[in-house]
Amino acid sequence: MLKFPDNFLWGAATAAYQVEGNNDRSDWWRWEKEAGKENSGFACCHYDLYELDFDLAKGLGHNAHRLSVEWSRIEPEEGKFSEAALKHYVDVIQALRARNIEPVVTLHHFTNPIWLADSGGWENKKAAAFFLRYSGHVVRALAKYVRYWITLNEPTIYFSHAYIFGVWPPQKKSIWKAMLVKNHLAAAHIKTYRLIHRIYKELKLQKPLVSIAQHMQAFVPCTSSVKNKFAAFLRHQWFNLGLIDNFVRHKALDFIGLNYYSRQLVDIEKWGIRNLFADVCKSTHHPVKKNAVGWDIYPEGLCDLLLKLKKYNLPVMITENGICTPEDALRWEFIFEHLEHMHRAMERGVPVLGYLYWSLLDNFEWDKGFGPRFGLIGIDYTTQQRTIRESAVKFKQVCQTGVLSNA
Q1: Would you report the helix, strand and coil content of the chain in percent, each value rounded to 5?
Q2: Domain boundaries, position 154
């Protein structure tokens, strides 16, 4: 039996574009159609059904919920802000507060307004200023009800998928543009971090806690060769910690938001830059279970990463951790084992604030469409019927008691 702190945050996460439906002013909405991808459409109708979904979360023992605000709703045209959209998100946050659920609010979760995309997106040197202006409107509207803020979700995933691999809009493959976007995102976070603190000071509110949600993988050497060990170290420093180091230097993190899903088994062929950063094991060495899209299930990686974050002397929140699978028993096994390894890190002195499972609901999984099922709550996309999975009921016992038990 493992006991967690009494004030621990337990819950799940969503992202606006993936659950709300009809975000037709977003660059993703247009891209889905132009690229011939599965359309997000009504998604989970969460824009209208959020109170129902929050009732379900409350019934499952959650005391925290991570959500995002859709920039393209707030600022559908450049410089024109929608009071109706801002009021909607105020209502959403108040609905969480009314259920004693702590909101963790994300300002950017991959999607951009079409007008920003048409002006060059995050390649535009004005992008950080645009984001700062938008963030100011949102923070001033929500500050009274929100303590935890995430400025950017997985910035390394955003610039790599959109500008290196070219699988997300705007589908470019340019290291130079990727680094430009990375720099603009970093500047946006640092400036927005300072803005949020300034707004809270002006409003005489309790200090906020501001971070990013950083996607991290466990980079594991396939063999103990010098090449593999060095490549794994290099990838960890660059992909996992590069932005964190930058923001710590700028004193622009109050905690570390950690999104963890899987490992990468590092096995490089030769001493080339591309090899050092990209080569992976192509054999079945060290086999483990996988989720429905082929990602390795590697719960010990969560403990390892948390221990590596201890040096920053900052609290950590697990802002995403989850599995897509048609086998709900595997979902609970995934949650159980990751909570075990998280607890091990906490026993060794890592200050973890909370655990937010991805996701509360089955949802639109970006370029993978509606196929992957991550939700504690299943969604019938034809009828919008919600079905609570057995894994959610088992997780509920942990959320309500703060105890992880084999019983």
Answers
A1: 45, 20, 35
A2: 2-400
pTM for the whole structure: 0.98
Q: What's the pLDDT tens digit per position in 255-278?
A: 999 999 999 999 999 999 889 999
- Phi and psi for 366 in degrees, rounded to 5? 55, -130
Question: How many domains, in total, are found in the chain?
Answer: 1
Contacts of 94 (CB under 8 A, 6+ apart): 145
- The predicted-structure confidence for 2-32, as pLDDT tens digits, reads as follows 999 999 999 999 999 999 999 999 999 999 9
Q: Which residue has the tokens 């009274």?
A: 144
CA distance 353 to 145: 19
Strands annotated E in 331-382: 352-358, 377-380
Q: What is the DSSP annotation of 217-279?
A: EEEEESS--HHHHHHHHHHIIIIITHHHHHHHHTT--SSEEEEEEEEEEE--SSS-HHHHHH-
96 assigned to some structural domain: yes
pLDDT in tens, 285-309: 899 999 999 999 999 999 999 999 9
Does residue 407 sit within a domain? no
Residue 199: exposure state from Cβ atoms within 10 A (0-12, 13-18, ≥19): middle
Could you report the per-residue pLDDT of 323-367, keeping only the tens digit for each?
999 999 999 999 999 999 999 999 999 999 999 999 999 999 999
Which domain CATH number covers 177? 3.20.20.80
Give the C-alpha separation, 109 to 396, whole Å: 27
